[in-house]
Design goal:
Length: 481
Amino acid sequence: MSLFAVKPLSRIMAESEGGKHSLKRTLGPGSLIALGIGAIIGAGLFSLTGIAAAENAGPAIVLSFALAAFGCAFAGMCYSEFSTMIPVAGSAYTYAYATMGELLAWIIGWDLVLEYAVGAATVSISWSRYVVTLLHGYGVELPAQLIASPWQPVTLADGSVIHGYMNLPAVLIVVVISLLLITGIKESANVNAVVVVIKVTVVVVFIAAGWAFIKPANHVPFIPPNTGTFGEFGWSGILKGAGTIFFAYIGFDAVSTAAQEARKPQKDMPIGIIGSLIICTILYILFAYVMTGLVPYTEFRGHAAPAALAIAATPYVWLKTAVSLAIIAGLTSVILVMLLGQSRVFYSMSRDGLVPMIFSDIHPKYRTPWRSNLVFMVFVSLFSAFAPISWVGHMTSIGTLFAFVVVCGGVLIMRKTNPDLPRPFRTPLVPLVPLLGIVVCLAMMFGLGLSNWLRLFVWLGIGLVIYFSYGRRHSHLQNAK
C-alpha cells in the first residue's frame, strides 16, 4: 500500500454525486462571491491598514494592498483551475489527493484545521472583544471573568488585574453559527449575504463620506524616504507593508470548499474566487487612500483604533459606531465561512475513510454534514473559550499559507501528469504563475518566525500519528487495492 497513492479524478467525481451522502447544489455566482467577501473582509482592514501605514509604507500603503492582492491572485488562479476540474467539497485536500498522493493529502487536510477551525476560534475571540467594547459604550458591562480565557489577564475599572474563567461571548457566536450551518447551505448563504451587505455598505460609506475631507498634503510624500532600515518606508517599506496586510486577504480559498454545493461550478467557481478578490482589493485600496488622506500616517503609530482616529477628522462621529458594527458583521461572516469550510473538508476526508464516518453523515432534511458541524462546534468552542488569541492567530496564518503552496504545486504536477484533462478555467502563464505563488507564500511563511514553524511541525506530527493509527488502515483507496 503506497503512501503516495493518487486518487483518480474519475473516482473522485463519481463519488461526489448521488447517494445519501451527497450535498445539495444551490449556490450561484452571487452567493459564491458573497462567501469570498464574507471570509476576506474582517477586522484586519480597520486595524492593519493604520499599522502598516505608520510603520512601513506611509500613504503608499495603497501600493502594498495592490502588491498583496497580486500575490493572492497567483494562488487564487490555481484554486480556480482546480475547483473547476474537481468541483467537490475537499478544496486543497482533494486537489492534493489527485496530484500528490494520500499522505500529502492527509497532511493538507489536517493542516486546513489550522486555517478553518482554529481560524474560526481566532476570529470568535476578536468578535467577543469588539462586542464587549460596543456594549461598554452603551453602559452594558459583562462579567470580566466571562469575557477572557484563564491565560488572558483582564484589568478592571479599579486598576486590579484578574484572569478570566472563559470567553463566553466567543463560545456563543460559534454555537449560533454552527446551528445555522446545520439548517442548510442556502439559509447560511442568505444570512452571510445580508452580513456582507452590512459591512460593505459601511466601508463604502466611510470612503464616500471621508473623500471630501482628504487633505492632499497628507499624501505628500506618497512614498516616504527609507530610514536606512529595510521595511521602514521607501520601496522596501511597501514590500514589508504588503506582508503585514497580506493576512487581510486570507479566506478567499474557502470558496473552493463550497464547489460541491455550486449549481454550475465549472463556470461560477472562478467568478466566486477571483471576483471576491477583485472587489475586496478595490475596497481595500480606496479605504487606505481615504484613511491616510484624512490623517497623517505618522499619527497612526501605536494607535489601537486607527479607523476611529481617521473618522475623528470628519464631522461624521456616528461613523465610529457604524465601523464597530461593520467589524462585528465582518467577523461574523468570517466565522461562518471558516466553519463551513472546515466541515466540508472533513466531509471529503470522511468519504475517503481517513476520518470517521460521522463527519460525512448528511442530515436527511437539511442535506448538510450536521454531525461534523456539531463536532467542530465543540472543538472550536473549547479554543474560543480557553485559548489566548496570540496562540491561535499565527497558527492560522502559517497553516493557510502552507495550503496555498501545495495548491500552486499541484497545478504544476497536474499539468504534467494529466495535460489533456478538460480545464474550464486555466491558470495563465504556467509554470510562472504557480511558481510565483509558491515563492510569495513561502516568503510569508518564513517571515512568521521559528516558533510558528515549530507549532506547525508539532501539529502535523499529531496528525501523522492519527493517520498511521487510523486513517491509513481505514482508507478506502488503500483497501480497494
